[in-house]
Amino acid sequence: xxxxxxxxxxxxxxxxxxxxxxxxxxxxxxxxxxxxxxxxxxxxxxxxxxxxxxxxxxxxxxxxxxxxxxxxxxxxxxxxxxxxxxxxxxxxxxxxxxxxxxxx
Length: 104
Known about the structure:
By secondary structure, this protein is of the alpha+beta class. The protein has helices spanning 18-24, 80-91; strands at 4-6, 29-31, 56-57, 63-64. Strands 1-2 form a two-stranded antiparallel ribbon. A hairpin with a 5-residue loop joins strand 3 (56-57) and strand 4. The protein is elongated and about 110 Å long.
């Protein structure tokens, strides 16, 4: 159990921080050993394995380890086939061959 520690006020009026000290808190006690909030570690959505500096981010906006990075390994809800199809339709040029009937 932690106990508050009383900090005595200084009677020296020459310090420029008197106006700031009164604005912080009227209670001059601090709790010793207060725990700092822990950061949430990044973990794989499937196996809960800790991820390193560069986790794999899928199109479904989830983080995965190297084992579960592929869509078929984590039951991805994003439609990768439709994305690839629209990308190919947009980027590829349709080539039509010259027909024999047009030459005569």
